[in-house]
Amino acid sequence: MRPLAIVCEATHVEEIRRGVARYCHPYISSRFVLVISVDTAYEGSFDQERRRLIDWMGDPPGGATNKPLLCTTQATAKAARLKQLASAFEYEIELETVARLSAAPGSSGPPPLLRLLNQCGLSLRSASAHLLRHWAHGAIDRHAVDNWVEQFARLGPYK
Questions:
Q1: How many of the other CB atoms lie within 10 Å of CB of 11?
Q2: CA within 13 Å, CB half, 113
Q3: Taking the complete model, does pTM exceed 0.90, yes or no?
């Protein structure tokens, strides 16, 4: 599993946290996902959050399989100089729009936030498969978890 840090404007934090709560495994999100808010209108507001981000990304949680992924919006990256930070510490940075990181599913396919969580192995299904990998009664992988979840589709709107 790969840690994911999302840096956004303070006005979008709750919306993004709702998306993380919706698509990410709850136990895993508390350890592997960090959502940081910044005020791009006030240049000095990011100093404390920058330190928090550096500390968190420099000391990934146990079980991390790769360097953390930093995700942010173009405006936030520019105002907080996150591209320079990512370059200095050799972090991968991905730019998204707030609308694409929101809790609301997109009109076509899964929302980009779910794609990011899957990419990091942090989605509900991916993380469940990872947490159950030592199951003693047979193999449980992502395919097994997907099959188990899909059986509830027969319930229609009550799934």
A1: 10
A2: 27
A3: no
